[in-house]
Every structure is written in C-alpha cells, then in structure tokens.
Amino acid sequence: MKIEVLRIGQRLVRDDRVTTHVALVSRAFGASKILMQEVNPEIKKTISDVNRTWGSTFEVEIIDNWRKVLKSKKNSFKIVHLTMYGENIDSVVDKIRQEEQVLIVIGAEKVPCEAYDLADYNVAVGNQPHSEISALAVLLDRVLQGRQFLKKQENAQKEIVPTKRGKKVLDKTID
Amino acid sequence: MKIEVLRIGQRLVRDDRVTTHVALVSRAFGASKILMQEVNPEIKKTISDVNRTWGSTFEVEIIDNWRKVLKSKKNSFKIVHLTMYGENIDSVVDKIRQEEQVLIVIGAEKVPCEAYDLADYNVAVGNQPHSEISALAVLLDRVLQGRQFLKKQENAQKEIVPTKRGKKVLDKTID
Predict the structure, then answer these.
(1) Residue A126 in contact with partner chain B when CB distance is under 8 A
(2) Who has the most CB within 10 Å: A38, A75, A92, B59?
(3) What are the residues facing A34 on neighbouring strands?
(4) If you count residue pairs, one on A and one on B, with CB atoms under 8 Å apart, how many are there?
C-alpha cells in the first residue's frame, strides 16, 4: 500500500515542533511522503538528517495550495481525512486496508468544509479532541497492523537492537 | 486499569503545543492524570475547559521533582517507560494489560538513565524516532484495545455523533 500524508494549515512558528512530530510519525509509521504548506524549510533538513542516520527515503514536499494538491491526488488516491467528527475508525479500517493508494489528510487548525467533501472517508480516532499526531499514528497502526515497525530500513547508519534496559545501537558504517 | 502519565523534561515555551497534545492524548486515551514539571500553568486551564465541554475528570498535576514522584509511585504502580531503545511493544503488551495500576513515563528530551533503571518495562513503539505523543497513543490503544474510544464521558456539555460527512454535535446543556 502506498501512503502519503497531506497536512492542511499551519500556525507558523507556534507549530514548528508539532510539524516535526507529524513528519516523523508519517515516516516511522509507513508513509512515503508528507506534503505541507507554509512550514519552516528547516523541516526538510531535519528529516533528511533522520533519513541518513536511521534509513528510509521518506520525502517532505512543500506545496503552495492544498486544494489543488487534494483535487489532483483524488484521481489516483483514496482520500482519508482524520477528524473527530467522522465515522468511527472501527467501521472503516477494513475498507481502508484494501486500498492501494491512500492520501491521509490532517488539519493543524480548523479544516474547511471542502476537505470533508473531497474525502472518501472522514475518519474519527475517537470522538474526543486530542492531536493530529496521535490520530495519524493510530490510524496507520490499525491499518498496517504493526507491520510498519518490523520493516528494516535500508541504508541506515544506525540500527537499534531492542533491549530491556539501556541502549543498544549497531553502527552500520563500521565494517 | 488505573493509568497515569509522567512527563519528564520540558523545553519550556518551545514545547508548549506538544505539551498540550500530550495532555489531550492522555485524557482521550484513558489515563486519569498527567504529572508534569516546568510547564506553562495555562495548560491546566486548557484541559479544564476541554473537560467542561467534552466531559471527564482528567487531571493535570504540576510537580517539582520527577525523580521523587517516580520513586514514590513505584510502590503502587508498574512503571512503563516509552523509549525507542526498549523492548518491542509486541513482546510486552499482554503483560502490561494484566497490571492494575500503570504509570507511563515519557520524555520531552533526552531521558536520564535513572528512568530506564526505575522502569518495570522499557517499551519501544517501533525502533525509529517519532514522537512521545504517537508512542503514548499507540501504547494505550494497544493496551486498551480501542475500548478507550467507546466510553461515554460523563458530565459532557457536548457529544459528537459520528458521521460520514460534516459535523453532528449534541448540545447536552439543552433539555
């Protein structure tokens, strides 16, 4: 399954850390790309540093107009919009799992009606306010059923060896 | 199961939005309390506003010294420390599910060794960097198996009716 994430809206500097978390979650939970507008361009460097150290070819694309992107992606992707007002995740997760290409839309602020209308699925990860970061993570975890964590990243310089206490890290740059 | 969350470290203003997200996730995913140090006291007001509108008696406790708190809680709670270096969540989730009282420890920055040593479980939600917000959400979703989203909040002024498109909200202050 090919997964991309589109983030709508951005409260500029105020949301910088949140933006980084959203990108890192997209990468670690199996998406291949995140598309965002009005972000600090530093985010591209942050993610490319993470890719270099921990592997993967995850991309950050900075866009001008989310509406255009959403409309053009709609031809080939199923649109999954995360909103606390949507259908329960339990009712739709099996259907989403069958899709070949999914664009997940998340809002950093109040999301315009158009996003609801363009979506194939408006999905609620619970009907209580929390965070687009947690909603994205739980959706991907439920859709991919944990397989996202088993994948070995290619071209990683470092790899963690899971351990009960402390830190074990393989340095793969040493032969 | 009684669940509390302890957040260690805080990059002050820089992390304000992230702190709010952590508290909202703790509340929406079934914890009864979050304990944090060095946060903007505004967070208490934000959460009490959310409690009033959407229900629940979730608490924010501002603490002085996380080490003291962790040591004293260790008498009655099992300590689950979330870290990308820990054991895979798949290996420990069944055991955690059997516990009666769990304190989940998350770090906003580099976490001192003591936290690893005091933990009963050092748990990795994947071995890639992402976010304490997503790690907390996925841990609680896996432990509670989605039941956290089915619970009706008491004393809510508003309640969402899940819907395929748009927003349906019951105003429970109107008889």
Answers:
(1) yes
(2) A92
(3) A5, A60
(4) 161
In the predicted model, is pLDDT for residue B108 greater than 90?
no
Q: Does the interface predicted TM-score (ipTM) exceed 0.90?
A: yes
Q: B149 and A86 in contact by Cβ < 8 A?
A: no
For an interface test with A, give the residue of B113, B138, B144, B172 to mutate (most A CBs within 10 A). Answer: B138
Give residue-wise pLDDT tens across range A3-25.
999 999 865 555 688 999 999 99
State yes or no: pLDDT of A129 exceeds 80.
yes
Q: Could you tell me if residue A30 is left (phi over 0), alpha (psi between -120 and 50 degrees) or otherwise beta?
A: left
Interface probe, candidates A131, A152, A159, chain B, greatest B C-beta count within 10 A: A131
**What sign does the CA torsion over A92, A96, A98, A99 have?**
positive
Output the six-digit token pair for B143: 């432990």
Read off φ and ψ for residue B117, nearest 5 degrees: -75, -35
